[in-house]
Predict the 3D structure of the following.
Amino acid sequence: VNGAIAEKDWAEAVASVQSIIRPGAEVLLACHVNPDGDALGSMLGFAQGLQQLGVTGLQCSFPGPLSVPDPLHMPGMNLLVPEEQAYTAPDLLVTFDAASTSRLGSLAQRLDSAAMSIVLDHHASNSGFGKLSLVDPDAAATALVAARLLDRLGVQYDLGIAECLYIALVTDTGSFKFDLTTPEVHELAARLVGSGISVGAISRRIFDTRPFGAVKLFGEVLGRANLDPAAAQGRGMVTAVATLDDLVKHNQPGYILEALIDSVRCTAEADVACLLKQVSEREWAVSLRSKGGADVSKVAVALGGGGHRLAAGFTGRGSADEIIEAVRAHLV
Ligand code: AMP
Ligand code: MN
Ligand code: MN
């Protein structure tokens, strides 16, 4: 399956990778800020594939502090370097799951200095950067695009590669539940499971384990959720707001809130779900979800972010009420 990507682009990507399989070549892989399972998993899985092919001077990075949430610890993390230490002019740069250069922080500078750059992504909102752009908006995860390239390169999925790609696939498909869960997704999953990964342990770690403090925290934030039946052209919107005070009170790290949107979006009376996660006094990470009536990526892009039709996000500045009102205004 090729999806939206032309065969000549695959051929160019294969040739570019093969040309850096030589001693002394510097290869930098980069994924988006605050990496999720797909960003990290596709990047680190691909990295191990390159190692299998004999690539040596290999670095992986993402902008911001080099911390990875416990549930997302996976093979290949030894390759991670802070953005300041990343090669300044690599022979090859490959980006993963980043829809725009703003998601790459200072690593975006390497798009100009790298001899060659390849963008692997699946966001319809991808702004089109990099010398070679391999973007398939119909792919459920960037990992699917990365796997197509690994297959063309003749890489065999060992345990490490398989665990990374599986984590990417299982997170971005919501455990194979979302609309883009195609036969190709299941076929790739079958191959990954066939490499011997522990599916139950991975799922428990990523989806079904959180500290008791987080259980209480979720209950408190959900207890304050608000349903606005008139919003989104009468399709309804449910909103929830998690503050820094909530995190402090329950002694939880910010990443623990990544799973909370799934408990908000199940609201039957609302097509749109909106979760505000406070980052600082007047800054919020906003998650948007739609059941199909609204295109939330349009809302997110209009407010400076990005994403997919049914799952998008942006950074909001102002009070929680102001941000909710802005989302509401863009849903008409
Ligand atoms: P999240 O709600 O954080 O799970 O993100 C859902 C989708 O929205 C992901 O596909 C992200 O790529 C996208 N997204 C989230 N936050 C941002 C942002 N600040 N800028 C651009 N895209 C974002
Ligand atoms: Mn992502
Ligand atoms: Mn993704």
Observations:
- Residues 158 and 195 are 6 Å apart (CA to CA).
- The pocket of manganese (II) ion (ligand 3) is lined by residues 38, 97, 122, 141-142, 172 (CB under 6 Å).
- The two ends are 37 Å apart (CA to CA).
